[in-house]
Specification:
By secondary structure, the protein is α/β, with parallel strands linked by helices. The chain has helices at about 15-25, 40-50, 65-70, 90-95, 115-125, 140-150, 175-180, 185, 190-210, 300-305, 315-335, 350-370, and strands at about 5-10, 30-35, 80-85, 100-105, 130, 155-165, 210-220, 230-240, 245-250, 260-265, 270-275, 280-285, 290-295, 375. A hairpin with a 2-residue loop joins strand 10 (about 260-265) and strand 11 (about 270-275). It is globular.
Length: about 375
């Protein structure tokens, strides 16, 4: 199979997430980066394109001219990765989707609910695919946990606890990656809730199969002068009766990327942490804990198909990210070739993106009402 021709909007030389997307797209050899509008200025875009070895005539000053020309080229891009700040997700998504070019967009979906709703309409009207890179859903053991819950190994779910703790915004920071994340105009209404809370929320719903019905949130901005939340405590009620708690913080010294998920039912429980992603603890009620590993003994098919190497060889962030790209490649190739899509292929899309925006919106509304319970507008 020939690689899918990929473009990129954003992700220039000084952008962390752009590099991550490029690595993830290359791991399985399914994509080849051939074009880009890589920065907000023509000079930076050209410099980044040159550094990446792109042909000069495939490096663009802006995403619109890129979308127009690439759609006309015989060998134009088939998909585009959008790796800009949140407020710049909607406009390029619209330009590429309406020209039949598949979109792989970084999360969260947008910066505002208004743009999110408009984006949903654009996705609905396009024949092209829309993929949202909630990369933690690509971890082998998160697929294992999801399959175990679907198989009834935990019984009826009762309690879900998710947390995502970091420390990098503990004090006022003035560098690019921090600057836009604390700016409401570029990040949106949520700070830590939008940046990392949406990951914890998405993973909770993905693994459990449950849907948050209402929540009560206490949002804080501990750093003086910061306009957006840098810490949030959220209680959640799921449809069906399960209860949950979510804590996200970017002002927790000692935490680097502490995404953790604990799920408990009437038959057993699961515990997983992203800092040690190749171990999943499963406990049947009244029995000793059982350690499940990536591609190891007891691995289900959902775990195995996300793993590339034998058990005991660590797989983590980049491989999980690459799994989302690989799933996207399966879907793109199936549409391109007119072949049936393997039903095991799973990736986040517009539905999950809208849900994340509704989570942030509900958190902000609840916190403004002294942490009152509010329903998600789903």
């Amino acid at each position: 199979m020939r690689p899918i021709r990929l473009g990129m909007v954003g992700g220039g030389n000084d952008a962390f997430i752009g590099g991550v997307h490029r690595i993830a797209s290359r791991i399985d050899g399914r994509f080849q980066l051939v074009a880009g509008a890589l920065s907000s200025t023509p000079e930076k875009s050209q410099a980044s394109g040159a550094a990446l070895g792109l042909a000069p005539d495939r490096v663009y000053d802006d995403f619109k001219s890129m979308a127009i020309r690439e759609a006309r080229l015989k060998d134009g891009i088939e998909a585009v990765a959008i790796v800009t700040p949140n407020h710049m997700h909607f406009a390029p998504t619209r330009e590429f989707l309406k020209r039949g070019i598949h979109v792989i967009c970084d999360k969260p979906l947008t910066s505002t609910m208004a743009d999110a709703k408009k984006m949903a309409k654009v996705v609905e009207d396009s024949d092209a695919l829309f993929v949202l890179t909630h990369n933690y859903t690509g971890y082998p053991l998160m697929r294992q946990a999801k399959a175990m819950i679907e198989n009834g190994d935990l019984g009826e779910l009762r309690v879900v606890q998710a947390e995502y703790a970091q420390s990098w915004l503990t004090n006022k920071e003035e560098f690019k990656q921090a600057e836009w994340r604390v700016d409401p105009a570029r990040s949106g209404a949520g700070g830590s809730t939008g940046d990392i809370g949406t990951h914890a929320f998405n993973l909770t719903e993905f693994v459990t199969g449950l849907s948050v019905e209402s929540l009560a949130a206490d949002l804080s901005s501990f750093v003086p002068g910061r306009e957006l939340d840098d810490n949030a405590h959220v209680m959640m009620r799921f449809r069906g009766g399960a209860k949950g708690m979510l804590w996200c913080s970017q002002v927790a010294p000692g935490n680097e990327n502490g995404l953790t998920l604990r799920i408990y039912g009437d038959k057993g429980g699961l515990e997983w942490g992203q800092m040690n992603p190749n171990q999943l603890w499963f406990t049947r009620h009244g029995e000793p804990k059982q350690l499940l590993t990536t591609n190891g003994a007891g691995a289900l098919d959902a775990n195995i198909r996300m793993s590339r190497i034998p058990a005991g060889h660590p797989e983590g962030y980049l491989e999980g990210f690459a799994n989302i790209y690989s799933e996207a490649a399966d879907a793109i190739e199936a549409q391109r070739d007119g072949t049936p899509l393997d039903p095991a292929v799973t990736y986040p899309g517009i539905k999950e993106g809208i849900a994340g925006m509704q989570f942030v919106d509900a958190c902000v509304r609840s916190s403004k009402r002294d942490s009152a319970w509010v329903k998600l507008d789903r």
